[in-house]
Amino acid sequence: MSRSVLLRGGRVIDPSQSMNDVADVLVVDGKVEAIGTRVSNETSGREGLETIDCTELIVSPGFIDVHCHLREPGREEVETIASGARAAAAGGFTAVCAMPNTDPVTDNQAAVGFILAQSARANAARVYPIGAISVGQRGEALAEFGELVAAGAVAVSDDGRPVASAHLMRTALEYARTFDIPVADHCEEPTLAKGGAMNEGLVSARLGLKGIPAEAEEIMAIRDILLARLTGGHIHLCHMSTRGSVELIRWGKERGINVTAEVCPHHISLTEDAVEGYDTNAKMNPPLRTADDVAALQEAVRDGTIDLIATDHAPHHYDEKEREFADAPNGIIGLETALAVNISWLVAPGIIDLPLLVERMSCAPARVFGLAGGTLRRGSPADVTVFDPDTEWVVDAAQFESKGRNTPYAGRTLQGRAHVTLVGGRIVYRSEG
Amino acid sequence: MTHPLGKDLLGLEPLTGEQIRLILDTAEPFKEISERAIKKVPTLRGATIVNLFFEASTRTRVSFEFAEKRLSADTVNVAASGSSVSKGETLVDTARNLEAMRIDMVVIRHGASGAARFLAERIESNVINAGDGTHEHPTQGLLDLLTLRDHFGRIDGLKVCIVGDVLHSRVARSNIWGLTKMGAQVAVCGPRSLLPNAIDELGVTVFNRVEDAIEWADALNILRLQLERMTAGYIPSLREYNRVFGVSRERLERAPRDVLILHPGPMNRGVEIDSDVADGPFSVILNQVTNGVAVRMAVLYLLSGGKPELAEAAKRGGGDR
To answer: Residues 6 or more apart from A156 whose CB is under 8 A from it?
Structure first.
């Protein structure tokens, strides 16, 4: 007997087939079997069918996060692949890409295999490994991209240890072409950003914290774009945070350079003002910028200069954040707030509509990183997110599936929440409400 | 009663001009105590104060300690190098352990901006910021204000220029807030590499040339130049710094009026300030040090719940707080 799920009566938003209608979605054997208004009648009474009422809810291709930190191996007390994959599912994500800055670094095929094995065991959102660009993320010798990709890596990045050497980045972009994978870069000019704890500006001057100028990001963004032009490689710019970066990406795209870019929910919602009071949950890298940057990034999500939204989910132990601002680690968790932050700051104010949100959170990530998913076409894997775009809820990090509690949204009322998450037709998350 | 300053003194930015004036006025009667043969009043008798210094400091620590002792408080000095901090204890654990010993106040000096506030939000005791990173050093700002007021009889309308490494200076920030709130005109002068990029947005005038600053100012507050600014590449050399930004007698003599000279110490003679200026007729550098004790007594008194109008009585030995 085949396992089947009927998602009945929801509004199906699937930009991959320009769909935005009330319809039923039938999932059989892990695949989308049918979408339509009469599916429900045709399947009534079918044996072994689980029906989920999706009235008033949105049914969309599952969200994909191309940038998260799951800490395993090495820091399992902070997050594991299992807890991260459950957090992802609870946030409506059906797949996430795990950055390689673990201990040991994901710079070899065994490390990639370990992540995939843990992911299979977790039985929640899919976890795709991102391999390191350089051995040990040391910025010296190229890692074996071929081995990494053969084992299951979907991209390469040295993420938190940005590639300082232009030569290494050039080589990586060239070499990655054979395997048709993006090279994802955390754009940060290390000598300009050195010792910085927040955005450089009036707030940093007042608080006496060393600032990171926008130019530290923009210099590397344009370097990477120019190297993509030189090499024809695919550069993916991580967590863009400034108006200047948006303008540079726009410049690159207008010239047909193979550049894609992501933005994080916190950079389209919060400003440097959140650091007031030395709140270490407002400390991340790149830092929160100004209202003008936020406006530019929101517009870039709308017009497509920014291809997709990714979380940069970065759990830290409570004790690590409970300290002096300059000494606290960078990063916040994001998997379980991303949808609500995006709805609250992009959809609710009318900057983008729900189909474009689904495009930026599901279709584009699948396309840019060459992943399965991002569509509900007949026959595709049934990675599906069912969410309520209107419900309001108060963020209580203690309720999160993630082990991390480091969120600047704690106590805030946000709009929109995942209700059911299906991965390969299996229900991996269902809200209690 | 509600405390006139709140629970803590973390900086001058959060204070109103009225609160700053209150502290300065309260310091006036306390000045006299230090001039007596027996420099002690019972005002804070029974209060326990911890001086928690995570950074080396002589002047500020000794000044606080004298202020505390002259008010009869019981004081303990904790230096970071000699404490469990060097064993890796976190700031919050250090604080909680101290508080578990039932203390009343903590005076904290720390290398991280925001450390005083971090502590204040986590313990019940009053917290006084004795310098946090490059953020604020409020009692230094207050003693500078008191010294200016002593000399000019007012702060309102004074033109004060802060000269030197404003970027890394907590003294500069406290001075900018304190002076601005008290109605002074504030300028800064230094190499642009040692001024915050957003300095104009703080509402101060910027002079690129020290000659222009001297021509404009009623008083100069000259900041210490740390040697490590040179090794970190902010300036080429101390010699050139002195040549371009050093306050010398020759430069002062060209000023249209007498310019009062303040310096928070410790001085680098021959770098930011020449000896004949430091020791010259317009230097009030040692008056600043004297006023430091009175200002800190006033802050301790007010935070401990002392009534401003009773400061005069406290001076005479009335212990009411």
So the answer is: A100, A130, A131, A132, A133, A143, A145, A148, A172, A176, A181, A182, A183, A184
Nearest-angstrom CA–CA distance, B233 and B238: 11
- Reported as a pLDDT band with limits 50, 70 and 90, residue B228 is confident
* Complex prediction ipTM: 0.91
Report pLDDT for B319.
Answer: 47
B13 at interface of A, judged by CB pairs closer than 8 A: yes
Give CA–CA dist A316/B283, Å, rounded.
51
Cis amide leading into A73 (omega within 30):
yes
End-to-end CA distance of chain A: 30
Closest CA of chain A from B84, distance in Å: 16
Q: What is the share, in percent, of chain A residues with pLDDT greater than 90?
A: 95
Q: Which of B129, B163, B121 is nearest to B53 (CA)?
A: B129
DSSP A126-143: EEEEEE-SBGGG-SSSBP
Q: Which of A293, A312, A383, A388 is catalytic?
A: A312
Is the CB of residue A267 less than 8 Å from the CB of residue A242? no
Strand partners, A6: A26, A51
Q: Are the C-beta atoms of A289 and A270 separated by less than 8 Å?
A: no
DSSP H helical ranges for A101-164: 109-122, 145-151
Nearest-angstrom CA–CA distance, B161 and B175: 10
Tokens representing residue B246 in the block:
């050093």
- The separation between the first and the last C-alpha atoms of chain B, rounded to the nearest angstrom, is 11
Longest CA–CA separation in chain B, Å = 58
Q: Report yes or no: A64 and A379 within 8 Å, Cβ to Cβ.
A: no
Which residues of chain B lie closer than 8 angstroms to A322, CB-CB?
90, 92
> Are residues B117 and A278, on separate chains, in Cβ contact within 8 Å?
yes
- pLDDT, tens only, A321-376: 999 999 999 999 999 999 999 999 999 999 999 999 999 999 999 999 999 999 99
- Indicate the length of chain B as a whole number: 321
Mean confidence (pLDDT) of chain B: 92
